[in-house]
């Protein structure tokens, strides 16, 4: 993926209207703004290699207004990626402009870049934060960054997403949930089955593992749920 642009332009792969597929807002109609770049390379990522175009804040606002007219009403504008927090210069201009139009803003993020979050948290209404387990992502451990991120994000409406694969390390899973219990014990946590390629979704064997992990997690936290990605079941974007 190319590096993001700063100032008033950003590389965007798509802007579209669809149903929110994850978390407590599943099924609501949102406008999605998908940013290109990401600082991570999760093994299950399906965003790499998508074509992007350089857009201005004005260009994005125009497309949002067009979609609202054509397919609205929408409940939120969801900033997704990639990693939207790589574009804080752009978001500092875009988000206040969206707020002026009375939009609610949902930020979908890897939950790692806490410094960048502190720059834009004031204009976000909902934060959907990932908790990245190294045994699943095949990346390094970000537990320290996740802790700082969650401590900031919990001031807003928040939910936490944990992608689970059959490779999940149970001790590592418990360690990450322990951190959530310490920092934001009332945050809803969604356990999502990993999907990759054209296999059956959701994989029944993996769902049985999620069932077990939900029971373990619910001993530590008040709200641990098994989640799915609606868009994968409905074959929509
Ligand atoms: S954080 Fe999200 S966009 Fe970035 S590599 Fe991982 S799955 Fe892909």
Overall pLDDT: 95
| The number of domains | 1
Distance between the termini: 20 Å
Which ligands appear in the coordinates?
Answer: iron/sulfur cluster
Number of DSSP strand runs: 9
CATH architecture grouping: Alpha-Beta Barrel
CATH superfamily, called what?
Aldolase class I
The number of helical segments is 8
Task: Give the strand content.
Answer: 15-25%
Low-confidence stretches: none
Helical amount? 25-40%
CATH fold category name: TIM Barrel
C-alpha Rg (nearest Å): 17 Å
What class, by secondary structure content?
alpha/beta
CATH class: Alpha Beta
Walk me through this protein's architecture.
This protein has a nine-stranded mixed beta sheet with strand order 3-1-2-4-5-6-7-8-9, with helices on one face. Helix 2 packs parallel to helix 3 (114-120) and helix 5 (143-153) packs parallel to helix 6 (170-183). It has one domain (9-234): TIM Barrel (Alpha-Beta Barrel). Strand 7 (157-164), helix 6 and strand 8 (189-193) form a beta-alpha-beta unit. It contains eight helices and nine strands. It has 237 residues and is an alpha/beta fold. The model has no long low-confidence stretch (mean pLDDT 95). Bound molecules: iron/sulfur cluster (SF4). Residues 38, 40-42, 45, 47, 81-83, 110 line the site of iron/sulfur cluster.
What's the topology here?
Elements: E1 9-19, E2 29-35, E3 53-56, H1 57-71, E4 76-80, H2 88-100, E5 105-109, H3 114-120, E6 126-130, H4 134-137, H5 143-153, E7 157-164, H6 170-183, E8 189-193, H7 204-218, E9 224-226, H8 230-234
Helix pairs in contact: 1-2, 2-3, 3-5, 5-6
The structure holds iron/sulfur cluster.
Iron/sulfur cluster binds at residues 38, 40-42, 45, 47, 81-83, 110.
